[in-house]
Amino acid sequence: MTQTLKTIRGMNDILPDESAHWLWFEDCVRSVLESYGYSQLRTPLIEPTELFTGSIGETTDVIEKEMYTFESRGGSSLSLRPEGTASLVRSALQHGLIRAQQVKLWYSGPMFRYEKPQRGRYRQFHQIGAEAYAQEGPDIDCELLLMGERIWKTIGLGGIFLEINSLGDAQCRQLYRGQLTDYLQDHRANLDEDSQRRLQANPLRILDSKNPDMAQIIELAPKPIDYLTEAAKEHFDTLCRYLDNAGLTYRVNPRLVRGLDYYSRTVFEWVSGELGAQAAVCSGGRYDGLFEKQGGKPTPAIGWAMGVERILELLTIQNKRVASTKPHVYMVLAGENAIEKGLILAEHARNLKPGIRIRSNLGGGSFKAQFKRADRCEAEFAWVLGEDEIASQSVVVKYLRDKDVAQCTLNVAELGNWIEKNIEL
Ligand code: HAM
Q1: Distances (CA, A) of 362 to 17, 112, 365, 371, 403
Q2: Which portions of the chain are predicted below pLDDT 50?
Q3: Mapped to the 3 state alphabet, what secondary structure does 202-254 carry?
Q4: pLDDT of 189-198, one tens digit each?
Q5: Which atom of ligand 1 is nearest to the CA of 270?
Q6: Ligand 1 center to residue 283 CA distance, Å?
Q7: 37, 64, 148, 322: most buried, per Cβ within 10 A?
């Protein structure tokens, strides 16, 4: 016997019931993004490997261990995108988007990282992200954070907390890096293998280590926020003031460093206490040096990306999933004549009320079987069409959710009125 095939580890099907929630969520986020002037940009799932290695940083976990990289038939190295920020910068440079004043962009789609799968951590996962270019901030930093909060409010998500920090600009980083390297050098013997290797190449990455044996060394390490230049400090303080005035609650977490190398100045994460180890639902920050790194002119930039799976899981935990694609109406069709007329009647009803969900019973079946199907798909109403109804140009309406309400016969000419009264989209 042959075995049926399954999805590969860490990659999931999103089944129809689940998908309904995704669509609802994506619609909510999109309407908020558009209300702040963001336009969508779609980039390929596959890019040259060097785009990611050059942007994200050679010594990050994403690049060292997690990329899906392969050789194309033409012999070049390609990778599945592990995130969206690098691709959007590439696209903005390639198409001159900044010259065209297209500086507020959003994207949505699957990302790929070869991580150890666990709750909230997948190998194919989905992000919705927003990026703003050519703005120094901190006004845009504040607006991006307000936009995030508005999304949580729109979808009814509670119990998440905003943490922010500043990593400083290039000048602060130089000073800080020296101090950090000296400190870590003093503790070299207690660093794990990965960290010893990164000590010279990328000491900041050590602070992002999840190894519990390193927790104390990291806890006592110098913090980037203590090495800010006047300008970087002013930027961060102003952001905090804007956030205070806007009434947004946050916590400054001096240990927040993020796992990707392109960040500078503002970084942030929204975290939840209800998701276990994978607590970050949305993260981001400034990456003022990335345009230059990709060969463009210096262009300040900032953005965030949210993990869709984590947010939907959180909504499930909080019982806040509202989407429904259950049919409003199930059409019970008795006889060949009714099938023909029923198809037309359903089209008529869809013209009367675009968006109405009608499932017609196609493929025949007894009355009993048809009502069973209507029940199983949890339709609200049944419209029954048989020879008598066709002759009198009517349908019988049955209330499937409330069996105490008596059925009624409705003239087809009344259908529009009935729909208006009874169907809520
Ligand atoms: P990131 O922190 O790597 O940042 O990912 C952003 C979000 O994606 C995380 O907060 C998390 O919710 C979700 N996420 C990450 N990895 C996984 C995974 N394996 N499974 C499920 N969810 C995951 C970035 O990707 C940056 N590009 C964000 C950004 C945009 N920074 C500036 N602009």
Answers
A1: 21, 40, 9, 13, 24
A2: none
A3: CHHHHCCCCCHHHHHHHHHCCCHHHHCCHHHHHHHHHHHHHHHHHCCCCEECC
A4: 999 998 998 8
A5: 10
A6: 6
A7: 148
